[in-house]
Amino acid sequence: MRRPALQSIVTALMALGCGGGEPKAARDAGETHSGLAAAGGVTQAPAGADARKARIVPLGPMGGDVEILSGHPDSAGPFVMRIKELPGSVVPPHTHPVDENITVVSGTWHFAVGERFDTTALRPMTTGTYAFVPKGATMFAASPDGAVVQVHGNGPFHIHWRDGLRVLSDSGASAKFRFRIDEAVSAPRGDGRIRQGYGSGTLIQYEIVQADGRVFMAHERDLRRR
């Protein structure tokens, strides 16, 4: 059996409710991202900035769905980044080849360690809560109402999805999904249109954009066509 790809954390975080849809080539590269979204982006400290110079980065409205504050998770050495988790998003079981340090800086994030996604195992991490996850441990998470989490560690910080990852916009992937991009749907949070879909094992979620521009995630089982 082919070993699932270990992928760039940035391209991985551009899916699962915390970033824009990642390029298929990036997901398939190698033999070896975080969370299920399509119009966000990555922002980084200004090019040429002295990484060793003292600085303060206040928490404010994020310019993208991933903000890299120091270093880079795909490169060797220390890094710090912030991730915006959409309301309703889940992060399927996955591992990292290095230790992960997580601090919730806004909202509440629900987190657990285990091989299978289990809502009863999730524990709420409120603002200011810190978690340490050793390399190789399988973890999963959920963000019922949205959150911003700050992650730091030593790169390269890749991700291995335990059950793989399929994206609705991928060629040939639509057979896994009941709904299609731009389809009008109703969800418990309100009506909207499908912007992207993500599947990992039995977990299938869609990114929904509403008429006022607000975006949330919803499980396939909770959606109805309009």
Q: For the terminal residues, how far apart are their CA atoms?
A: 41 Å
Domain count, please report it.
2
- The geometry reads as globular
Order of helices and strands: EHHEEEEEEEEEEEEEEEEE
- Widest sheet: strand order? 1-12-5-10-7-8
Overall average residue pLDDT: 83
- Tell me the number of strands: 18
Number of helices: 2
- The secondary structure category is mainly beta
Largest sheet: 6 strands, antiparallel
Q: Could you say what the CATH architecture of the largest domain is?
A: Sandwich
Q: Can you tell me the CATH superfamily of the largest domain?
A: Jelly Rolls
CATH class of the largest domain: Mainly Beta
Helix residue percentage: under 10%
Q: Which spans of ≥5 residues are poorly predicted at pLDDT below 50?
A: 1-6, 19-40
Rg over CA atoms: 17 Å
CATH topology of the largest domain: Jelly Rolls
| Beta content | 35-45%
Characterization of the model:
The chain has 226 residues and is mainly beta. It has two domains: 6-161, Sandwich (Jelly Rolls), CATH 2.60.120.10; 166-225, Roll (SH3 type barrels). The protein has helices at 9-13, 24-28, and strands spanning 6-7, 42-44, 66-70, 77-85, 89-95, 100-107, 109-113, 123-125, 130-133, 139-143, 147-155, 159-161, 166-167, 184-187, 190-200, 203-209, 215-219, 224-225. Strands 1-12-5-10-7-8 form a six-stranded antiparallel β-sheet. The chain has a six-stranded mixed β-sheet with strand order 2-3-4-11-6-9, with no helix packed on it. Strands 13, 14, 15, 16, 17 and 18 form a six-stranded antiparallel β-sheet that branches. The radius of gyration is 17 Å and the shape is globular. The protein starts with 5 loop residues before the first strand and ends with a strand. Mean pLDDT is 83; it is low at 1-6 and 19-40.
